[in-house]
């Protein structure tokens, strides 16, 4: 989300949380996706970064959100960072519980197809079909890697009261 949308969201959260109540925001860190484990996923990561920059999407949520919460009157604001790894499936194709599998990451990226194509593909892709081919090639890289991951932020705060 961009700055304006985040400010509106935090204002609404502040409005509905009772005095003394707690808020927990869990946000994936798109700024530091470590998918770039091969040439295709590096190109995809570049597309996501270009899209984020064009849309004004706030990058460093670990700094940005605690400041917004404090400005809205929240206390005891804490940020806990973690890592989400790409996990595989066992022999029965059941998703392992220690992360998201390649299909999950692919589904997430497929949701960006429209804005990326509408944005002109940022010099990397020209059509939806080219984006899908890039995504499938990236998914193959993730599937064979133990390094594909990203970080997340769990931000906790108590409303003054």
Explain what you see:
With about 160 residues, the chain is α+β, with helices and mostly antiparallel strands. It has one domain. It contains six helices and four strands; from the N terminus they run H-E-H-H-E-E-H-H-H-E. The protein has helices spanning about 5-15, 40-55, 60-70, 100-110, 115-120, 130-145, and strands spanning about 20-30, 75-85, 100, 150-160. Strands 1-4-2-3 form a four-stranded mixed sheet. Helix 2 (about 40-55) packs across helix 6 and helix 4 (about 100-110) packs antiparallel against helix 6 (about 130-145). The chain starts with a helix and ends with a strand. The model is unreliable at about 90-95 (pLDDT under 50).
Distance, first to last CA: 28 Å
Number of E-state strands? 4
Q: Count helical runs.
A: 6
Number of domains: 1
What sort of overall outline do the alpha carbons produce when their principal axes are compared? elongated
Range of strand content:
15-25%
Helix content: 40-55%
Largest sheet: 4 strands, mixed
């Amino acid at each position: 989300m961009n700055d304006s949308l985040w400010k509106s969201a935090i204002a609404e959260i502040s409005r509905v949380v009772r005095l003394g109540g707690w808020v927990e925001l869990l946000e994936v860190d798109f700024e530091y996706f470590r998918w770039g484990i091969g040439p295709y996923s590096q190109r995809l990561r570049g597309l996501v970064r270009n899209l984020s920059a064009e849309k004004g999407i706030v990058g460093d949520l670990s700094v940005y959100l605690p400041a917004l919460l404090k400005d809205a009157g929240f206390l005891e604001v804490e940020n806990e960072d973690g890592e989400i790894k790409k996990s595989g499936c066992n022999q029965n194709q059941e998703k392992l519980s220690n992360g998201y599998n390649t299909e999950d990451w692919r589904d997430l990226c497929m949701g960006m197809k429209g804005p990326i194509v509408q944005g002109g593909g940022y010099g990397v892709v020209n059509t939806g079909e080219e984006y899908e081919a890039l995504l499938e090639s990236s998914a193959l890289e993730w599937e064979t890697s133990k390094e594909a991951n990203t970080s997340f932020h769990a931000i906790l705060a108590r409303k003054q009261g």
